[in-house]
Amino acid sequence: MNMEAFVLGCGGMMPLPYRHLTSVLLRRDGDLFLFDGGEGTQVSLRRLNLKWKKINAIFVSHTHADHVTGLPGILMLSSQVERTEPLYIFGPPKIAEYIETSRRVLDMYINYPIIVKEITEPGAVYSGDGFYVRAFPLEHTKTCVGYTLEELDRPGEFNPEQAQKLNVPRGPLWGKLQHGESVVNADGITVSPEQVVGKNRSGRKFSFVTDTLYLPSIAKEVMGSDLLICEGMFADDCSDQAKEKKHMTARQSATIARDAKVKRFAMIHYSPRYNDRELETLLSQAKKVYPAAELTKDRMRFEIPYVE
């Protein structure tokens, strides 16, 4: 089962000619999940030729303009095709008012159900086949949450050679063993799944964190992520400004990645004061803490493989 993340926009505060506002699309096989929807989200979706028509759910960190102004266009875009499946939208208080007001003022014709759920406490907010999405609190100038999409453990690998040695005939009995059931072999002896199936294998974890003060608690929430996309808005010389505006420096973002022992870490939501060349300063400071730190760029793709 493939999983990959597409950065639709990596900028903060205001769009630049070469940098749309923050938005990430996560694709897990046929399921699509949008994390924030800043201005320019539609443009990157079309340029990447992604199948945006079937976005399952949208997860909004908070209702500042640079994270939601792309959403009305996404809602209208989705109504251009036949769709019967509901679109779920999650976010802190006021996200329902924002969606409803946009629909009313813009006279949107929506031909599919939109289900908006406001997050009032941390915990699982959405689930599907073999995964769930969890929200956790951040600290910004208004209510803000981070998200993790976590897969459940996968069954261990089935050993057909061992099954044959134990005289279990190929066919339905193998399937029962793989689904955790004991069976009786050709000799009338009971064979348990533990004899032919390895230990459970871990699923994958994607984490999205933006617009927050540095909090040690964030590392616990994103612990062990296969991919952490986290804001790194300012360089060290703007640490006072970061604190005042309740944002993080690149170094603080890297500290979370290090403490959480994530497998891959990339920064997002840069201040518009930094052009692409100047972003190397943020990257250099982050690498002093987490040497494998990366910068996101618009329309960048991250593959999230299983770790066997």
From TrEMBL:
Keywords (A to Z) from UniProt: Endonuclease, Hydrolase, Metal-binding, Nuclease, tRNA processing, Zinc
Necessary cofactors: Zn(2+)
Active site (record annotation): 66
EC nos: 3.1.26.11
Ranges where the Metallo-beta-lactamase domain occurs: 20-199
Residues that bind Zn(2+) 1: 62, 64, 140, 211
Record has Lyase as a keyword: no
Residues annotated to bind Zn(2+) 2: 66-67, 211, 269
Cross-referenced CDD domains: RNaseZ_ZiPD-like_MBL-fold (cd07717)
Molecular function per GO: 3'-tRNA processing endoribonuclease activity; zinc ion binding
Cofactor: record remark: Binds 2 Zn(2+) ions.
Catalytic activity line of the entry: Endonucleolytic cleavage of RNA, removing extra 3' nucleotides from tRNA precursor, generating 3' termini of tRNAs. A 3'-hydroxy group is left at the tRNA terminus and a 5'-phosphoryl group is left at the trailer molecule
Pfam family, one: Lactamase_B_2
PANTHER family on file: ZINC PHOSPHODIESTERASE ELAC PROTEIN 1
Stated role: Zinc phosphodiesterase, which displays some tRNA 3'-processing endonuclease activity. Probably involved in tRNA maturation, by removing a 3'-trailer from precursor tRNA.
Summary of subunit composition and partner proteins: Homodimer.
Protein family per UniProt: Belongs to the RNase Z family.
Protein name: Ribonuclease Z
Higher taxonomy: Bacteria, Pseudomonadati, Spirochaetota, Spirochaetia, Spirochaetales
